[in-house]
Every structure is written in C-alpha cells, then in structure tokens.
C-alpha cells in the first residue's frame, strides 16, 4: 500500500508504542505532501526518554494547515515546532502534555489563527519563549487564544513595550488556571471577547479594549479598573462576575455602554446603581445572597433574578421598556412592584418566593395606565394572599398559572377573570374556593386545569358559552360537588378528565364532540349522562 498518497487528515495514535526515533523516521511524514491536518496522540503518560527525538522525527511538511498534539510526554518540544517556515498553519492544538515545562516558541508562525493550549500542567511561566526570540510582532495573525487546565501556571510575562503582541486577537479564554497571578496583555486593539473562569488567585485589571463587546469573568479573586473610563467600550455587552466581594463605583461607571449584564454568585454584593447602566437591556442576577437593593434603569427589557435571598423589595414600575421578568428563590421579597406593573411588561414568571404577599402595591398608582401583561406564572409562593393590592388582573392576560400558593383564596377580588384568557391552571391552592363567578365573557378560553384545590366546590357559571374551550382537567378536588348550568359544556369540548373528586354526584351533560373522557376515583356519582349526551 502506497501511504505517500495519503490526503486530508492523518491521525497517528498510540505513539507510546513507538520504540525510538528510527521507528518514527520510517513514518516519513515529510514525504506525505497532501496531508493538511495532522493529529498525533499518546495514550500513556509513562516517561519516555526518546519522546523528544520521536516527535522530532515526526516533523511534517511545512505545507500542513493544522496540527494537534495530544498526550505528548516530553519535557519540551523539538525545534521545528513553531518554525516560521510553517507558513500555511492556521490551527495548533496542544493538549495533555503534562510533563512539558515550557511552551514552544510559536509566536513567529505567520498565519496561525487559532491556538488552543490545554492541560500543560507543568508550565509555570508564559513569556519570551512563547513569543519567540527577537520577534517584534509575535502572533501576527492569531485571532483566538485559549488556555485551559494549566494547574501550575503562575505568571504571564508580557512582551517588551516596543513589541506589538496579538495585533489581530479577537477572543481570549483562560479557564482552570488556579495559580495564575500575572497580568493580561494590554496592547490588543481588536480584542472582542474575554472569558476568564476558575482563576482564583487572579486580580484582573481590565485594560481598555476599544472593540470589546463580551466580558465574562468567573471564579476570580478580584476585578480592578485603573480609571473610571477604562471599560467604556462601545460594544461591551456581556459581563459575568461571580465570587466578587464588591463592585466599586469606578468599575460600574465603566459599564455605561453595557447592554447585557450577568452578575453571578457575588455573595457580598449589597446593591446595584441604576445611574451607571444607561444602555442596559438585559439584566441577570444570580445567587447574590446579600443583595438588598436593586435600582433598575428604564431602558431594561429583560430581567432575571434568581437566588437573591436578602432582597426584600423590588420596584419595576419605572422600567417603562420592560417586557420580560423572572423572579426566583428570593425568599425575603414581599412584593414585585411599588406601583402598577410596567405597561409594556408581557411575561412575568415568579417561583419559590416564600414571603411574597402580592405582586404590585398599586395604592398610589395612577388609574390612567394599565398593564398589558399576557403571561403570568406564580409557583411556590406560600405567603401570597392576592395578586395585587387592587385585586384585579390585567384584562390582556392570556395565560395564567398559579401553583402551590397555599394562602390564596381567589384570583381576583371581583371574582372575575380576564376576558383575553386562553389558558388557566390552578394547582395546590388548598384555600381556593372559586376561580370566578361567571365565565361567559372569557370567549377565548381554551384550556382549564384545576388540581389539588381542596375547598373548590364547583366550576363557574356560563362555561357552556365558551366556544373555544376544548380541554378541562379537574384533579384531586375532594370538595367538588357539581357542575352548574345543568351540567352543560360547550360543544367545542374535546377532552375531559375528572379524577379524585370524592363528593361529585353527577357527570356533566351534552358533550357530543368529546374525543377523550377520563373518570377515576369519584365514588359518589349516582347520575350518568342520558343517551345522546356523549359521543357514540
């Protein structure tokens, strides 16, 4: 078989079985002119004295475009590695070379675009040997640089001031480098995205990158800014900063242009300032247990707050652009808004807020404005007694889900439901006696589900006039006795399930178009529909 004609990708695995450099020389990689992607793998990390010589003999043609080295057990790399004659190389990946004490000199590769360095556990310093000796413009074409799982890496020594490192770098990622204490490169004019994760000893000083639009910092010691305008980047849009003790006012001032902000696991953060976020569109705050005060900007469109156990109140009434809000696991929160809900708010999702008593305190709100809320979900709020201080639901509401609100007795003070409602689900509300008095005006209702409401005795009047209602589930309501209106249902009804209604005495009547009918655990039923009232 003529292996000289190999084309495309060549993967050589189990190189630990190669005995010496003569075996490697016979592979004759220099003779394989059409191999553009070369992958070399060692599966064992046993010490091999000949490993450097073996890799030296596995030198490919300089026409190769991509090289991946995985599991190499030598302490250093051969001289051909990173030589500028590899003028076609665009991707280099070095992984699990755990005995290498220094990085190869690869800064002179003229067209290298992507560089990935993973699991080089013995490397302690990244410096001149990485850039290449006497290289005034190292990594001239590099666009993406990734360091990962370098457990002993302590220092990143930048180039000399007169050198221009990484002139085209756009993405920089550093993760699981727990001992790193050095500084990030400062002269990277095209950098767009920085991601730093799991560098517990790193005090991050963020330089002013004019093209930066995505900044993600996780699990680092501290973030430092040298001046108030250091982060004023026109496209800075994402910021994730867990484990920080504080966000200084100077640092926040540098986020004036940020549009999407995520703050995660800042256990000692107590407040955020509205005035610093003049462009903010999306705000995510997660597991900030000491956060007490949040002042929100009017530009905000999406708000997500999760696991902020110290947050006692939240005012979103001034967020005139807010469209979506999700509040979860905020156990000290008693209300969502002082004043009416924002007029443009369409979706509101509230879950597991133990002390939430009502959504909005509308006592001082103007009656000239009204919420356009369409989607409302409230789960696991055992202290909730009413949905708003006025007791009314927005007339625009299309979907309403209320689960596990054990103190809630009704959905509105007037015992009326919104006329636009299409989907209604009430579950685990043991004090709920009625969902409404009448239903005839809710012409859009399509689905009704009532489950585990121990005090519910009956459905509202007028349901037989609901021309779009096609599914009803009544489950685990032991006090449910009867269906009003003579047990009539609309002809549009296709599915009906009644389970665990121990006091129900009669089935509903007139369901000629029913496709699915499930009845179980209703032992008191003594009346069944007459002939012709069920489909044949």
TrEMBL record:
One Pfam short name: LRR_R13L1-DRL21
Source superkingdom: Eukaryota
Segments forming domain R13L1/DRL21-like LRR repeat region: 2-118
Name the chain's protein. Answer: R13L1/DRL21-like LRR repeat region domain-containing protein
SUPFAM superfamilies documented for this protein: L domain-like (SSF52058)
């Amino acid at each position: 078989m003529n292996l000289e004609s190999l084309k495309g990708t060549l993967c050589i695995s189990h190189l630990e079985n190669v005995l010496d450099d003569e075996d490697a020389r016979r592979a004759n990689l220099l003779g394989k002119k059409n191999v553009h992607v070369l992958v070399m793998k060692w599966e064992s990390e046993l010490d091999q004295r000949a490993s450097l010589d073996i890799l030296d003999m596995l030198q490919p043609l300089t026409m190769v475009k991509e090289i991946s080295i995985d599991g190499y057990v030598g302490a250093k790399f051969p001289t051909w590695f990173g030589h500028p004659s590899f003028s076609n190389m665009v991707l280099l990946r070095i992984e699990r070379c755990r005995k290498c004490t220094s990085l190869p000199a690869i800064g002179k590769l003229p067209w290298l675009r992507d560089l990935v360095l993973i699991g080089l556990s013995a490397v302690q310093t990244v410096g001149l040997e990485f850039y290449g000796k006497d290289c005034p413009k190292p990594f001239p074409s590099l666009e993406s640089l990734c360091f990962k799982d370098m457990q002993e890496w302590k220092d990143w020594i930048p180039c000399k001031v007169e050198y221009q490192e990484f002139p085209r770098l756009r993405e920089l990622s550093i993760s699981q480098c727990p001992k790193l204490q050095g500084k990030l490169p400062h002269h990277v004019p095209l950098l767009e995205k920085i991601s730093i994760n799991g560098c517990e000893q790193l005090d991050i000083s963020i330089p002013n990158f004019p093209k930066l639009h995505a900044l993600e910092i996780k699990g680092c010691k501290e973030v430092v800014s040298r001046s108030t305008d250091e982060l004023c980047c026109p496209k800075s849009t994402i910021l994730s900063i867990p484990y920080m003790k504080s966000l200084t006012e100077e640092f926040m001032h540098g986020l004036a242009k940020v549009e999407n902000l995520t703050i995660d696991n800042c256990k000692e953060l107590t407040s955020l300032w509205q005035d610093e976020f003049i462009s903010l569109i999306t705000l995510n705050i997660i597991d900030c247990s000491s956060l007490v005060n949040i002042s929100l900007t009017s530009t905000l469109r999406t708000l997500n707050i999760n696991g902020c156990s110290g947050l006692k109140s939240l005012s979103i009434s001034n967020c005139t652009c807010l469209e979506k809000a999700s509040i979860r696991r905020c156990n000290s929160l008693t209300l969502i808004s002082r004043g009416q809900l924002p007029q443009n708010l369409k979706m509101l999702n509230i879950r597991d807020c133990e002390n939430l008593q009502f959504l909005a305190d509308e006592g001082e709100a103007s009656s000239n404005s009204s919420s356009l809320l369409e989607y409302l979900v409230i789960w696991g709020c055992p202290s909730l007694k009413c949905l708003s201080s006025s007791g009314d639901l927005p007339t625009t509401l299309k979907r309403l889900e209320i689960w596990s609100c054990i103190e809630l007795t009704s959905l509105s003070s007037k015992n009326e439901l919104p006329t636009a409602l299409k989907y209604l689900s009430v579950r685990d509300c043991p004090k709920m006696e009625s969902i409404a008095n009448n239903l005839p005006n809710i012409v859009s209702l399509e689905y009704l589900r009532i489950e585990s409401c121990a005090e519910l005795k009956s459905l509202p009047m007028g349901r037989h006039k609901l021309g779009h209602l096609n599914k009803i589930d009544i489950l685990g309501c032991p006090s449910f006795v009867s269906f009003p209106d003579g047990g009539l249902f609309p002809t549009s009804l296709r599915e009906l399930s009644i389970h665990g209604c121990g006091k129900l005495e009669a089935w509903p009547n007139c369901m000629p178009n029913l496709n699915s009918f499930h009845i179980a655990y209703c032992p008191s039923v003594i009346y069944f529909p007459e002939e012709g009232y069920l489909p044949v």
